[in-house]
TrEMBL record, chain A:
Protein name (Swiss-Prot/TrEMBL): histidine kinase
Protein's organism: Winogradskyella marincola
Main EC class the enzyme belongs to: transferase
Top-level division of the source organism's lineage: Bacteria
Annotated SUPFAM superfamilies: ATPase domain of HSP90 chaperone/DNA topoisomerase II/histidine kinase, Homodimeric domain of signal transducing histidine kinase
Entry keywords, A to Z: Coiled coil, Kinase, Membrane, Phosphoprotein, Transferase, Transmembrane, Transmembrane helix, Two-component regulatory system
Reaction(s) catalysed by this chain's protein: ATP + protein L-histidine = ADP + protein N-phospho-L-histidine
Cell location: Membrane
Lineage summary: Bacteria, Pseudomonadati, Bacteroidota, Flavobacteriia, Flavobacteriales
UniProtKB/TrEMBL annotation, chain B:
Domain of life according to the entry: Bacteria
Chain positions found as 4-aspartylphosphate: D52
Domain named Response regulatory: residues: 3-119
Entry keywords, A to Z: Phosphoprotein
Statement: the UniProt record of this protein carries the keyword Ribosomal protein: no
Classification via SMART domains: REC
Species this protein is from: Winogradskyella marincola
Protein name per UniProt: Response regulator
InterPro entries in alphabetical order: Bact_response_regulator, CheY-like_superfamily, Sig_transdc_resp-reg_receiver
Length: 896, 120
């Protein structure tokens, strides 16, 4: 395949990545961008070209030794739920943007420590990036048929241009905001996409090699078992090999937390804590899938190609030699994806560290203070952009000058060993509050020194002039100082050996110095916050102990330099509102100091933030005892407040319950009052009539005409009847509704009961010439209190008669049996019931406004009594107007 | 002749009042509820109106409000005659502008003397 075609494929692929990143940035709120799958896939930035090509090389030459690098993360994954969550929580709270920030903040925003961590990371990662570039370059050459062509200058080398393109990509999507703790969703999405591609393409080639070129895994195994070194390829090689395994697993365990690119994707880019839950099983699964075919591809390569020098590129060579160019291009793209994601994320992470922990705190703070906010923002971004280019160019330079003889595996492991020097301060600092900044610095420097002597120096000497003198004879010929066998430990591989000694020395220094000398109060303050993060998250801005004198105006001036006027104003307003402070507060307190430092941390790193804020305030020294006392007090206040809040909630609840109960009582009282008022009114009305008529009859006996006398006497009789009827009904209703009347339930024939009622009402109906029909001729025996049902029927039928017109009236009484219910229906053709009365017609003393002429006859309780009787039979009453004219009343009750 | 409008929905009570006031030389008009009363008041300007409170359609309170809005009736006295005898009811009636508040059951003699006193 021609160089140009391949280059065009690469550029097209990069353009696709640009598009994906661009779309993700544009839809940064979408659930397609913010989910646990994308998060897990972004973690797979762990799998670089080392995994893609390097593992096969190791598998071909030394068997299963490629595995421990993946076992570490698999072992670490379940611990994430505790460990990573804690790290993520702390980082979010303090707006931490890199591992350098994380460690320097833990030890009291220590400027030098931040810079040291940055340098350690650069030492580890720049060569690592250069190896990635090497992989691109070499696979590019294997795939292009132009083998005779050798790049003579940088400008002829396609790798150089690819590196520049990657730098552009990282710059474009990595430096959109000055706040580096903001999410880079475009980059994360492109990494996730690449993670899918690299896995899928690797599985393709694995399946192709195993099942197309060979007859499955068994076939390869059988053929391979004939090889003489087969035993050593399939075991971990005894006791000594076991130690190598142990240390390599420990190394990778640490690397999954400490590698800047892993910290970037797993902590800084974490959108939601809960995404960790899925990641802890999906990520190990991803690694498992990735490693499944490694050994088979390696053995297949050994069997068919046999040349183990190029073993790293078996995955590419196998399809290529069998004429499957398409598959090899896919494999190339998969490997390329692994490279891009690693290079982009690693340079992004490193550039943040370089700018926020190295360049800005050591040279630009004075400048920033004098400059304008827009210019500062531009400056910060430019520092990061230049850093990205410088890191990639240095990596390229390293690759051109250094890396010819090195395998992906060895440089990768060297990076792991260097980065592992951060482990004591990182892990122990999370759980032990005594760890101090000086101890950390001592530990890291001594650890690096050991790594330098046991790993970097021999490697450099070998690479520069091919001399292995130091390794064979030791420093100044002293046996015990042999770099790969210090003090006689000669059975470990060089990286495992370097790891063992460096971490031992590092740990020793860290622990000893921490115990001997306590850190200052600020260190202890942050130590408490990290170690007891759960408690201090509640304290929020109040978790920082600070004493001194500071003016809000001065702090505001600093903030404006980086955030601009509007954002500063907004942030401070939010702060004042949150803590209920007046907007024109003059003196700053510890919370504002902490809040302001946090605001700046994302842009310029925690150390710089502290220095800047400290430059405008007058800080008093606080003793350690005081720090702990204040923290303890604020914790107690929080706890007390929580308790108070709970108590007050309980009280509110109780008050509400009381209120409800009270209202219910008042409502009941009101109903009772209303009932009594109505009863009184109803009783007084006939008494008034009787009283007035009696008085007139008594006084006017002589003058009063006879017919008027008779009328008054008739009225008195009527009123007396009304009175006694009323009293009877009230008592009846009261008894029924209080359940003081026992129903006399017996078996009766409903047809007969209806007929009986009609017969007693016949004379009233006849008077009005109203026809009453008993419609259903069938006998049916049901259990009920006959007197009461007659009372209900009488009431309903006489009501119907009342509303019927003279001569034209027709009332139909019917009954139905339906699903265990007896339903009786009384239908009339009278004038019907006003619509507004329908819902209330069964209420006591509710009399229709349109029936005033009938008043003397009704007690206002008739229908209420009917309802009560039917309800006492477990039934219900209903009413509706007929479509044409008249109303239909009915009741329905269950029978056994 | 003095004119009185009696507004009440209880025919038996109305009958006694009608008899009594006629005997005391009143011209008596009868209304069974507020709306009937207002209709009568369009053509008649009485000296006194006797109002029940609890009536169908338009009750006594509403009727009083309408009376108060009518300028022609500004010299007409209004008296409540009702079974509602709680202190709060009486206060409400007088607040609305009634000139007297009498309660049921009543003494016919007393009613007449109260009315005469009011319009004297």
């Amino acid at each position: 395949m021609s160089n140009y075609v391949l280059f065009i494929i690469i550029v097209t692929y990069l353009a696709a990545l640009f598009l994906i990143a661009y779309l993700a940035e544009k839809n940064s709120k979408s659930k397609w961008v913010n989910n646990s799958v994308v998060y897990t896939l972004s973690l797979a930035v762990y799998c670089t070209a080392w995994t893609y090509y390097g593992s096969i090389g190791i598998a071909a030459n030394s068997g299963v030794n490629f595995l421990p690098i993946y076992l570490g993360p698999v072992i670490a994954a379940p611990l994430w739920i505790v460990l990573m969550r804690k790290i993520v929580r702390i980082s979010k709270q303090h707006k931490i943007s890199s591992i350098a920030d994380f460690i320097s903040l833990r030890y009291g925003n220590h400027r030098f420590l931040g810079a040291l961590v940055t340098i350690v990371c650069l030492m580890a990662i720049v060569p690592y990036i250069s190896l990635q570039l090497k992989a691109v370059s070499e696979t590019f050459q294997i795939l292009s048929d132009d083998t005779s062509y050798v790049a003579t200058s940088v400008y002829d080398d396609s790798t150089f241009y690819i590196a520049l393109l990657l730098a552009v990509f990282a710059t474009f999507f990595g430096t959109q905001t000055t706040d580096a703790s903001e999410k880079h969703k475009g980059i994360v999405m492109s990494v996730a996409f690449e993670s899918v591609l690299k896995l899928v393409f690797f599985l393709f080639v694995g399946i192709y090699v195993t099942y197309v070129l060979f007859d499955g895994t068994e076939d390869i195994y059988t053929k391979m078992s004939a090889a003489e070194n087969f035993e050593s390829l399939t075991t971990i090689n005894g006791f000594e090999g076991g130690f190598n395994w142990l240390y390599t697993i420990m190394l990778s365990f640490m690397a999954i937390f400490l590698l800047p690119r892993q910290f970037q994707v797993s902590v800084v880019e974490n959108v939601r804590e809960k995404h960790l839950k899925n990641a802890i099983w999906m990520f190990p699964l991803y690694l498992l899938l990735f490693n499944f075919f490694v050994i088979f591809i390696a053995w297949a390569g050994n069997l068919t190609i046999g040349n183990t020098v190029q073993a790293e590129y078996y995955a590419l060579l196998l399809p290529l030699q069998n004429g499957n160019t398409f598959l090899s291009v896919l494999v190339f793209l998969g490997g390329f994806s692994a490279v891009i994601s690693m290079v982009v994320v690693a340079t992004l992470a490193l550039s943040t560290m370089v700018s926020n922990n190295l360049v800005i705190p050591y040279g630009f703070l004075d400048y920033f203070i004098k400059s304008h906010p827009e210019r500062n923002a531009k400056y910060i971004k430019n520092i990061r952009r230049i850093s990205i280019f410088l890191i990639i160019i240095s990596a390229y330079a390293f690759y051109v000058n250094f890396s010819f003889e090195l395998s992906l595996y060895s440089i990768g492991l060297m990076a792991f060993v260097i980065i592992a020097q951060l482990a004591p301060s990182f892990f122990i600092g999370l759980f032990w509050n005594r760890g101090s900044s000086q101890a950390t610095i001592a530990g890291i420097i001594s650890g690096i020194a050991v790594v330098f002597y046991t790993l970097i120096l021999p490697f450099s000497l070998h690479a520069l002039n091919g001399s292995d003198d130091l390794v064979q004879n030791g420093f100044a010929g002293i046996e015990v100082l042999k770099p790969h066998a210090l003090f006689g430990i000669d059975f470990l591989s060089p990286p495992a050996h370097a790891f063992f000694w460096s971490i031992l020395v590092n740990l020793f220094c860290y622990m000893t110095f921490s115990v001997i000398k306590k850190g200052n109060y600020r260190e202890r303050n942050y130590a408490e916050m990290y170690v007891d993060s759960k408690n201090y998250t509640d304290l929020q801005d109040g978790a920082l102990v600070w004493k001194g004198e500071a003016y809000v105006a001065d702090i505001k001036k600093v903030l404006v330099k980086f955030l601009g006027d509007t954002r500063t104003e907004r942030a401070l307003n939010l702060f004042f509102r949150k803590y209920d402070l007046p907007i024109d507060t003059q003196m700053a307190d510890a919370r504002l100091i902490n809040f302001s430092e946090k605001l700046l941390t994302g842009s310029i790193g925690s150390a710089s933030a502290k220095i800047l804020i400290a430059s405008v305030v007058k800080e008093d020294e606080v003793s350690l005892v005081e720090v702990l006392k204040i923290l303890e007090e604020s914790k107690e206040t929080i706890a007390r407040n929580k308790l108070l809040r709970e108590k007050s909630n309980e009280l509110t609840q109780l008050t509400n319950q009381l209120k409800d109960a009270n209202e219910e009582l008042i409502e009941k009282d009101r109903q009772k009052d209303e009932f009594l008022d109505t009863v009184a009114h109803e009783l007084k009305t006939p008494i008034t009539g009787i009283r007035a008529a009696t008085e007139l009859l008594l006084d006017d006996d002589d003058d009063m005409p006879q017919e008027i006398k008779a009328q008054f006497l008739k009225n008195m009789l009527q009123d007396s009847d009304r009175l006694s009827r009323l009293i009877h009904n009230i008592l009846d209703f009261e008894k029924l509704s209080k359940g003081r009347t026992q129903l006399n339930i017996k078996t009766h024939n409903i047809k007969n009961t209806i007929q009986k009622t009609i017969d007693t009402l016949r004379h009233i109906a006849d008077k009005k010439q109203v026809e009453i029909v008993n419609l259903n001729p069938n006998d049916f025996e049901v259990e009920y209190d006959e007197d009461r049902i007659v009372q209900v029927l009488t009431n309903l039928i006489s009501n119907a008669i009342k509303f019927c017109d003279v001569k034209k009236g027709k009332i139909i009484v019917d009954y139905k049996i339906d699903l265990g219910y007896l339903e009786v229906i009384i239908n009339d053709n009278g004038r019907g019931i006003p619509k507004q009365d329908l819902p209330y017609i069964f209420d006591k003393f509710y009399q229709s406004k349109n029936q005033n002429i009938q008043k003397p006859e009704g007690s206002g309780l008739g229908l209420a009594i009917c309802k009560q009787i039917i309800e006492n039979h477990n039934g219900e009453v209903w009413v509706k107007n007929n479509e044409k004219s008249g109303a239909t009343f009915g009741f329905k009750m269950p029978f056994k | 002749m003095k004119k009185i409008v009696i507004v009440d929905d209880e025919p038996n009570i109305v009958m006694t009042l009608e008899y009594t006031f006629k005997k005391h030389n009143f011209e008596v008009y009868i209304a069974r509820d507020g709306s009937e009363a207002l209709e009568i008041l369009q053509s008649v300007i009485p000296d006194v109106i006797m109002l029940d409170v609890m009536m169908p359609n338009v009750d006594g309170y509403q009727t009083l409000k309408s009376i108060k809005e009518n300028d022609q009736l500004k010299d007409t006295k209004v008296v409540f005659l009702t079974a509602k005898n709680k202190a709060s009811d009486i206060e409400k009636g007088l607040k609305l502008g009634a000139d007297k508040y009498l309660t049921k059951p009543f003494s016919v003699k007393k009613i007449v003397s109260e009315i005469n006193e009011l319009i004297a």
